[in-house]
């Protein structure tokens, strides 16, 4: 088992034909809170979508718990940000996994 919960190596991705991420390396340890912050357009959402392979990556490797993300992707919940008002309960319910 890997010592990292998420391990990203040399990730590059494009969003709508435009280069959005270039050579990202990131290691996130288990049992810790990690925040991804930055101004609008910095690539935060694009990074999350690339990690979950919701957008195609141009290069790089992504591992979750030591396994390629492709093998465990269905075990990860993702709730897309939208401009709508819903209750916290409904938001959490959308991200739950059965």
Protein model, in words:
- This protein has 98 residues and is α+β, with helices and mostly antiparallel strands.
- 19% of the residues lie in helices and 32% in strands.
- It is built from 3 helices and 4 strands.
- A 4-stranded antiparallel beta sheet has the order 2-1-3-4.
- Strand 1 and strand 2 form a beta hairpin.
- It is globular, with a radius of gyration of 14 Å.
- The model has no long low-confidence stretch (mean pLDDT 83).
Provide a short characterization of the protein structure.
The protein has helices at 44-51, 69-72, 88-94, and strands at 6-15, 18-28, 57-64, 67-68. The chain has 98 residues and is of the alpha+beta class.
Distance between the termini: 24 Å
Sheet/helix structural class: alpha+beta
The helix tally amounts to 3
User: How is the biggest beta sheet arranged?
Assistant: 4 strands, antiparallel
Strand order within the widest beta sheet: 2-1-3-4
Low-confidence stretches: none
Percent of residues in beta strands?
25-35%
How many distinct beta strands?
4
Q: What is the CA-based Rg, rounded?
A: 14 Å
How do the helices and strands follow one another from N- to C-terminus? EEHEEHH
Mean pLDDT: 83
| Residue share in helix | 10-25%
Gross morphology is globular
What topology does this entry show?
Elements: E1 6-15, E2 18-28, H1 44-51, E3 57-64, E4 67-68, H2 69-72, H3 88-94
Antiparallel strand pairs: 1-2, 1-3, 3-4
